[in-house]
Every structure is written in structure tokens, then in C-alpha cells.
TrEMBL record:
InterPro entries cross-referenced by the UniProt entry: GPCR_Rhodpsn, GPCR_Rhodpsn_7TM, Olfact_rcpt, Olfactory_Receptors
Transmembrane intervals: 26-50, 96-121, 142-166, 191-222, 234-256, 268-287
Physiological role: Putative odorant or sperm cell receptor.
Organism per entry: Sus scrofa
Gene name linked to the record: LOC110259072
Family named by the database record: Belongs to the G-protein coupled receptor 1 family.
Membrane topology (UniProt): Multi-pass membrane protein
Name of the protein: Olfactory receptor
Amino acid sequence: MEKINNVTEFVFWGLSQNLKVEKVCFVLFSFFYSVILLGNLLIMLTVYVGNLSKSPMYFFLSYLSFVDVCYSSVTAPKMIVDLLAKTKTISYVGCMLQLFAVHFLGCTEIFILMVMAYDRYVAICKPLHYMTIMDRERCNKMLLGTWLGGFLHSIVQVALVVQLPFCGPNEIDHYFCDIHPLLKLACTDTYVVGVVVIANSGIIAQVSFVILLFSYILILVFLRKQSAEGRRKALSTCGSHIAVVIIFFGPCTFMYMRPKTTFSEDKMVALFYTIISPMLNPLIYTLRNAEVKNAMKKLWGRWVFWGAKGKELEVTIQGG
């Protein structure tokens, strides 16, 4: 079928059609997005200022926070503004760019979580060789691999959608551009495209989750031979990571390991990996990690110190 594209923009239905609900959601998600920005930026600043980036775990944690900020910023600001808008529109080009960014950053986050799981496996199961295996050069290569993997995945997704004809209607029952809602609007048979989407997105999410699960099973088996104190410390370190993995992968599996169908619950499920997960990540890692909390206390102490010194200098100048 020759590509016929009469659609120059798409119209989002948004989270709700009820004006009162939209106003409540505006306040709620504005707060959530502020927490995402402040929490993740604080972790990045703490890792940098506290000189924690020498440790591979915190090196990857800072990049996870960076990806979370970028990932949520692709959808949240537009969604928040649309909650007060009468017509929620996005251009065709803007929709394709948003689709690319969502899958690029989402897939990159999946791969970063896998790298972080490998880091914990090496740290717990091979502690004597940890710094040799996880040296800075290897960490940089693994980080580059996460970005390249996310890029390749996203390019495939966008290439599948761009070649589809859209001849109307142009209303998307969602708050951002995603694969399944767009396939529903295409005026051609999208069965083959739907299968490729499942093979691309779904298998990446599912295989990654299985690998992560297997890595933690290996860690738990290894910990059986350790002392109670050693098990406690190791499980405390891994606990936060496991929580993040479950919160992120559960909704992703529901969204992409299924045929090209849409459900009314999709928007609520999507909120978990676009808003809730990026918001909870800094809270989970901060509350369960003593080293991050200590670094934040030191950072806060520096701010208080420099604030006091600034006031003293101001008083001295005024007195002079």
C-alpha cells in the first residue's frame, strides 16, 4: 500500500476528560515532576561533589539518575501542560521525536540496570577481583554499550512507525506517543509491524528481566556461605536495586509483551515507568544506602558552612 499521510498532527485524549480530575492531576504531577528533578539532580550532585564516582556502583547510579531526568522530561512537561489545555495536540514530527526519545531512554535505563546488577554480582561474588574487573575503562565501555543499545532499539521502533500511512482519525487515547496507540491509528494492516514490536520491545524487556533475576539468584546462592553480617550488608546493597527493577520492569512487561492491542489501563500503567519509577529511584537509593546519605550530609554541611561564611562576609562589608 502506498504511504498516504494526511495527518500533520495528533490529538491526545490525555489522562482524563474530567476538568476537575485534570486540575487535581496538574497539581499532583507537577509535584511529582519537581521531586524527580530535585531528587535525581541531588544524587548526581552528591556523587560528583562527594567524589563517589570512583566507585563503579555510584558511577552507574549517577547515570541512572541522569537518564531518569531525561526520560521523565520527554513526557511529563507536555502531559502537565496539556492537563490545563483545551486541545492537546502534538505535531507529526514532534510525535515521532517523542516516540524515539521514550524508547531510546527507556531501553538505555534497562541496560543500565543490567550493568548495575552485574556490578553487584562482581562486588559480592568476586570481591578480590572487583577493582580489576570493574576498572574505569570497562565501566566506560559498558556505559557506551547501554547508550548504543538504546539507540539501535529506538531506531527500529521509529522506522517501523514512520513508514506507516496515517489518513485519519488522528486522536490518540494516551498522554504521549507510543507504539501501540499509533499502530491503532494506521490505515493499513499492522500485523507484521506488531509482531516485530513484540520481538523488539517485549523480548528486550523480558530477557533483561530474566538475566537480572538470574544474577540475583546467583548472588543469593553465594550469600548462603557468608556470615550473617556479610549477608545483611550485601542484601541491603542489593535490596534497593531489586526494588527499582521490579517497579520498572513490571509495567514494561505488561505494555510490550502482548499483541498490538490497547487497554484503558495503559495510561495508568505507563505512569509507573515514566513518572513513578524515576521519582522513587532517588528515594529508594537514598533511604537504603548509608554511603549516599553520609555524602548528602557532608554536602548539606558544606552548603550551611558557605551560607554562614557568605553572611559573615556581607556583615563585614556592611560594617566596613
